[in-house]
Write a structure and sequence with these properties.
The structure is a single chain. With about 260 residues, this protein is α/β, with parallel strands linked by helices. It has one domain: Nucleoside phosphorylase domain (Rossmann fold, 3-Layer(aba) Sandwich), CATH 3.40.50.1580. Helices cover about 40% and strands about 20% of the residues. It is built from 7 helices and 8 strands; from the N terminus they run H-E-H-E-E-H-E-E-H-E-H-E-H-E-H. A hairpin with a 4-residue loop joins strand 2 and strand 3. Helix 3 packs parallel to helix 6 and helix 4 packs across helix 7. The chain is globular. The mean pLDDT is about 90.
Amino acid sequence: MIDRIGIARNWLPRYTGMPLDKFGDHILLTNFLYYVTEFADRFGVDVYGDNRPMQAATNTAGLTIINCGMGSANAATIMDLLSARMPQGVLFLGKCGGLKHRAEIGNFILPIAAIRGEGTSNDYFPPEVPALPSFKLHKFVSQKIVEHGYEYRTGVVYTTNRRVWEHDQEFLDRLKRMTCIAIDMETATIFIVGHHNGISRGALLLVSDLPLTPEGIKTKESDDKVTGQWTENHLELGIEAMTEIGAKGEPIKHFTY
């Protein structure tokens, strides 16, 4: 087991508890177990990986959802391990902190790019390589959002590997100077490692807090409110987009020149 694909084929079931042949052609990634359990309850399917680092489920349409955990290291791990399956598309359903007035709690964000502040992606490409989604995948997701009558924002997301920073004024001032629309811990890594592995990828983020103001910093109470009001719509959009893109969407594989 000395080649990358051989390692990934062995480790993907080991991390998730789900056999390789159970993974579908389209993948939803999330940080939250309740997204996976909601998905499984909706489709009446089993959740694998109760005692593993990651949990996963696949419906009869061939759509798989994986709770890959929090942070850029986990994001890189799952995007590497998915090379064992080479899915046709991966969509990350994550939460983010809004950094501009036009990004309000409950808004959806389709990032046009992500700044690689997490460090993990430097092991895959030099810093000059931009972290970008697959355009055609995002185009299809945006169409689904509009069909539902929801608003969404676009812009650049800053991805950091640092979790507790809301108290750090110097870091907050730096975020303001970068004029990003939001901040998270996974998007840039998913874009870069997807690019490295030739996997089409995108991210649909839900604004869950407004960390540039003291009253906007996430708490258990505020996060519970976001979960109750908006995550069902978030998951629904992901399911519809990734279910239908195989049948109705354009090919989303990038050419390599």
